[in-house]
Specification:
Oligomer: single chain
Structural class: alpha+beta
Number of strands: 4
Radius of gyration: 12 Å
Order of helices and strands: HEHHEEE
Strand order of the largest sheet: 1-4-2-3
Length: 90
Amino acid sequence: MTDTDRQMDQRLERTILELLERRGPTATICPSDAARAVYEGDDDGWRVYMEPARSAARRLVKAGEVEITQAGHPVEPAMARGPIRIRRTR
């Protein structure tokens, strides 16, 4: 992993937490919200940050900061398949 990769990982983690902070305590975000927030272009280049955003969410789950949900219910990150949402830990 390069320094640039580590910096992006940290930026995505901060962005997830910042986006959640701006919303209500029970609000959720999509990993794409974080990917779009860190992408600096006007096109769909943010898509390359989708998997890194999901990985950042998994690290934040491990740190006890957030939960990953599907259909409104917390799921184990390793078990999540398909679209996920991220919310603050309750």
